[in-house]
Amino acid sequence: MSSAGKDESRRHHTAVATGSTRHRKPGPLRFKTFLRNTILQAMLARGWKEVGEKDQDDWDLYWADRDWMATEFDQVHLEGWQRVNHFRNDRELCRKDLLVKNLNKHKRALGKANPEEAENFDFWPTTYVLPGDYALFAEEFKKGNSTSQQAQGSGQAWIMKPVGRSQGKGIFIFTKLSQISRWKTESRYGDGGVSTAPAGSERRQRDNHADKRDAAKEKGKAGGEGKAGGASCADEKGGQ
Fold first, then answer.
1. DSSP at 156
2. What is this structure's pTM?
3. Quick check: bond before 28 cis, omega within 30?
4. Each residue's pLDDT tens digit in the chain (240 positions)?
5. CB distance 179 to 199 below 8 Å
6. Cβ neighbours around 11 below 10 Å, total
7. From residue 69, how far is each of 76, 102, 227 by CA, in Å?
8. Which residues are CB-neighbours of 173 under 8 A, at least 6 positions away?
9. Are 228 and 215 within 8 A, CB to CB?
10. DSSP tag of 232
C-alpha cells in the first residue's frame, strides 16, 4: 500500500473509532481549566498550552470540577485523544458518607457470596452518618463512654468529619455527646451529614487486618494454599 493509501486508511479508522473525522492538532498538550491556582501553574510549567475563548472545545485535557461532570459530561462528545480529570459518578467514592455506604453495601453482598472473604473486609472504622444515624451512634457511643469514664477523662474519643470537605477542614475530636448536639437534627455544613469514627481505631483495625492477612498466608504455606484479601487505608484515612 502506498504512503497516501496508508494515511487514508488511518483517517478511516480514526473516524470509525471516535465517530468524527477530526484530528488532534500537532504541538504541545492543550488544556482547559477555570482554576487559577497551583494546578494551573503546574500545567503551564510543563510547557502545556491553555486554550483561549475561541478554542474552548479544542483541548486535550480538561481539568474540570465535579459540578461540570455531573451536569455536562454526559452531553459532551469526547474525541479519542481528549481526557478529563474525573471519572463518572466518582462522588460515590470521594464523599465520606457515600464511601462508607458503598463499603457496607459491598460487604453485605460479599457476606452472601463469600462469607470467609467478607470477614477480611473490615479495614475501615465503625462509622455513622449524622444526623440520620444519630440514635444508633448515641447508643454505640454510650457503650464506651459511661458517665464515670467521661468524668475521669478515660472515655472513648471519636472523630467528626464533614462529608464533603477535604484537607482536614472541619475535622475535630470529641468525647461528649453535648459537643455535637447540633448534629442531632441538622447537618452542620448543609452537605448531607457528617460521618464519625472512633479516634485511634483506624490504625488498630488496619493492624488487625494485617495480622489476619499474615496468618492466612502462613496457613496457606503450611497447607499448600492460602487466601489473603482486603486492603488498607493510608495515612489514617487522610485521603477522605
1. P
2. 0.58
3. no
4. 444 444 433 333 333 334 456 788 899 999 999 889 999 999 999 999 999 877 778 899 999 988 888 888 888 889 999 999 998 888 888 888 899 999 999 999 999 999 998 888 888 888 999 888 999 999 988 887 776 666 666 678 899 988 878 888 889 998 888 888 888 776 554 444 555 666 555 444 444 545 555 555 554 444 433 222 222 222 233 333
5. no
6. 12
7. 10, 20, 39
8. 157, 158, 159, 160, 199
9. no
10. -
128 residue type, one letter:
Y
CB 179 within 8 A of CB 130: no
**Of 126, 129, 142, residue with least CA distance to 202:** 126
CA angle 60, 63, 64 (to 5 degrees): 120
Spatial separation of the C-alpha atoms in residues 112 and 89, rounded to whole Å: 26
Beginning with the edge strand found earlier in the chain, give each strand of the sheet holding 61-63 in spatial order.
49-50, 30-33, 61-63, 83-84
Give the strand pairing for 30-33 and 61-63. Answer: parallel
Counting every residue written for the chain, the total comes to: 240
How, if at all, do strands 128-130 and 194-198 pair? antiparallel
Residue 190 grid coordinates:
448543609
Grid coordinates belonging to 180: 455535637
Closest CA to 73 of 86, 56, 59: 86
Whole-Å CA distances, 29 to 3, 19, 32, 43, 85:
27, 22, 10, 9, 15
Dig out the grid coordinates for 5 from the structure. Answer: 493509501
**Residue 122, amino acid:** D
Block residue for cell numbers 454510650: 142
